[in-house]
Design goal:
331 residues; 12 strands; alpha/beta
Length: 331
């Protein structure tokens, strides 16, 4: 009998087809958001689960689905998955790093530039017919080239943003991270390690690219925003919850910082109502990795992992981007 897998959200048909070559597949073509109870009900008898990134995988779900052996996500962030609980139960977990790095860095840069140069604010002005004449300071914003870029979280995406800033825009790059990069990488990126406080006080454009965990909750709140320059911008392409959105809205309204670009939000898809009313924030619906080729590559990487984790395909037993490969010895 074929092994059964569940695909928790709608996804590319060619990715599903690859799963069907190996497994009996239940899909979610309506793209409904299932409750945990519904997810548990549908997982009965399934050994594999494909998730798109936000579905919570916790100890309660794992206890209710003892036959589950692999959870493969097409997102790089996996704060929705209780990894220790999965490991304890012998459930293989994979994420989707690397394939989205450049696309996400492009978007982070675009969001930073849109905030600095007031692109959406000026577009709204034009669309509502308010543009009647050119004037010397019309939507005059901040420069990006030649300024100081601050990066909080210097993993793959942070480094890709640093490269764009240093090599493409002649920016001085400062960063803060749990660990300092090697001197060779710092030299290649033109990046210097500073304390979090120095970063906040010094940079002109701050980009957040750190993973979310209870330890990074509200890494940026009122205290941190107060340290930033009044002319600075803040861009968050990491996760909601890293920024205290209420404190950010307050800082933007009071012009304690100049502008922000946000792709992720606390409690998304809900957005703090104060942010929606402010002109000096660019808001996008968690799309930093959303180029079609990249989203397809993310989905196929999750498929590669699921096929391999369940002992099929050319990489059987060797899922390429497993987060807890040690559990495979127990399968
Ligand atoms: C990721 O891959 O983590 C992106 O945020 C998309 O969910």
């Amino acid at each position: 009998m074929r092994q059964k897998v569940l695909v928790a959200r709608a996804v590319f048909a060619d990715a599903i087809e690859r799963l069907r070559e190996h497994f009996e597949v239940e899909t979610n073509d309506a793209d409904d958001i299932w409750s945990q109870a519904e997810m548990i009900r549908r997982l009965q008898g399934k050994v594999g689960l494909f998730i798109t990134g936000t579905q919570p995988i916790d100890a309660v779900l794992l206890a209710a689905c003892p036959q589950l052996r692999a959870v493969c996500s097409m997102a790089v962030g996996y704060n929705n998955v209780d990894l220790p609980a999965c490991t304890a139960r012998g459930v293989l977990v994979s994420n989707a790093p690397d394939v989205l790095t450049q696309t996400t860095a492009d978007f982070g840069f675009a969001l930073m530039m849109a905030a600095a140069r007031r692109i959406t604010e000026s577009e709204h002005f034009l669309r509502r017919g308010a543009w009647t004449k050119w004037s010397y300071d019309l939507f005059a914003g901040a420069d990006v080239h030649g300024t100081t870029l601050g990066i909080l979280g210097m993993g793959r995406i942070g480094q890709a943003i640093a490269r764009r800033g240093a090599l493409g825009f002649g920016m001085r790059v400062l960063y803060h991270n749990r660990s300092q990069l090697g001197a060779g990488v710092e030299a290649e990126l033109g990046a210097s390690y500073v304390t979090k406080e120095q970063l906040l006080r010094t940079c002109d454009h701050l980009v957040l690219v750190l993973p979310y965990s209870p330890a990074s909750h509200h890494t940026i709140g009122a205290v941190e925003l107060a340290l930033m320059k009044a002319t600075a911008t803040l861009t968050n392409i990491a996760r909601g919850g890293i920024v205290d959105d209420a404190a950010l809205a307050h800082a933007l309204r009071e012009r304690r910082i100049a502008a922000a670009g946000l792709d992720v939000f606390e409690g998304e898809p809900a957005v703090h109502p104060d942010l929606l009313t402010l002109p000096n924030v660019v808001l996008t619906p968690h799309i930093a990795s959303a180029s079609l080729p990249t989203r397809r590559a993310m989905a196929h990487l999750a498929v590669d992992n699921l096929i391999a984790a369940l002992g099929a395909g050319p990489h059987a037993g060797r899922p390429p981007t497993a987060l807890n490969p040690e559990v495979l010895a127990r399968h």
